[in-house]
Design goal:
Strands 6, 7, 8, 9, 10 and 11 form a six-stranded mixed sheet that branches. A five-stranded parallel sheet has the order 3-2-1-4-5, with helices on both faces. The termini are far apart. The chain contains 14 helices and eleven strands. Helix 2 links the parallel strand 1 and strand 2. The protein folds into two domains: about 110 residues, 3-Layer(aba) Sandwich (Rossmann fold); about 120 residues, Rossmann fold (3-Layer(aba) Sandwich). About 45% of the residues lie in helices and about 15% in strands.
């Protein structure tokens, strides 16, 4: 309780008497998708700090960093004297969010959205939070139109490649994306099928399970490819070398927030993935 009381006192000293939480001018953004939406709404000049997943557009990464979205520190955020913390649905830890609200900071957690409709909901949410509802509606309309064209492109292909998305590695085993994940959603929108769709969430897959899944294409984030030793090293692993993807060296590597963020660039992600999965 003493720590929370001290935090509240510090917050009272930090916040300017005229701060306007309804029309925030000093914004802390946590979540790469949220930051992209803020910039797309033309409010990037209001951002004073971002989390480590906020790497697009180029100017976003130049802001002061508040760390990883799920390991936020209340004291550091309050020291920036923000009017608003706007964050993705999974920002945390919960104790830090509670401390920030108890200190009087307006905290807005966006809805989860890894569907075309979910993207529009997030855009409208951010627009409302920033008192930019008209801009939010206009951005949502543009994204909706772009997404319809991207899905039309994806549906124009006659093949349905089996794709396995590898997030990282756990205890030496590839950590693959199952049903209910952002990776599963983007694979489906791109007109492909998830070769690891027999389970939910992200789980390690054994060599036998991957070989049996027989993926046609290996999908990874660009940063994961680098972290795991490069694409040659990945395709040489027995679990991939013995699959159609490994034998034919079919893989796609995309920037992580573009691929999985489901922000304003989601239509671009669908279009690019749909084309890349077919060797384009």
């Amino acid at each position: 309780m003493r720590g929370l009381a001290s935090l509240c006192l510090a917050a009272a000293l930090f916040f300017a008497p005229g701060a306007n939480a309804d029309n925030p001018r000093r914004i802390v953004s946590a979540g790469g998708d949220i930051t992209e939406i803020i910039y797309a709404l033309g409010a990037g000049d209001r951002v004073v700090a971002v989390d480590s997943t906020s790497n697009h557009p180029a100017g976003a990464a130049s802001h002061q960093q508040i760390g990883y979205i799920r390991r936020l520190a209340a004291e550091g955020i309050l020291s920036l004297q923000p009017d608003l913390l706007i964050a993705a649905h999974d920002a945390g830890p919960p104790a830090a969010i509670e401390q920030l609200r108890a200190a009087g900071l307006r905290v807005e957690l966006a809805p989860k959205g890894d569907t075309p409709e979910g993207v529009l909901e997030k855009v409208r949410f951010v627009g409302k939070a920033l008192d930019l509802e008209a801009a939010g509606e206009a951005l949502a309309a543009r994204i909706e139109s772009d997404m319809a064209r991207a899905i039309e492109t994806a549906n124009g292909y006659t093949d349905t490649p089996r794709v396995i998305f590898v997030l990282s590695e756990r205890d030496g085993a590839p950590l693959a994306a199952g049903a209910g994940t952002s990776a599963d959603a983007i694979i489906s929108l791109a007109g492909a099928s998830n070769a690891a769709g027999g389970f939910s969430g992200y789980k390690p897959m054994s060599q036998e399970a991957i070989i049996e899944a027989a993926p046609d294409v290996l999908l990874m984030m660009s940063q994961t490819v680098e972290r795991l030793g490069g694409i040659d090293a990945m395709l040489a692993r027995p679990e991939f070398a013995l699959t159609p993807a490994g034998r034919e060296r079919r893989y796609v590597a995309m920037e992580g927030m573009l691929l999985l963020g489901f922000g304003p660039r989601a239509p671009e992600a669908v279009r690019r993935l749909a084309t890349a999965l077919r060797g384009g």
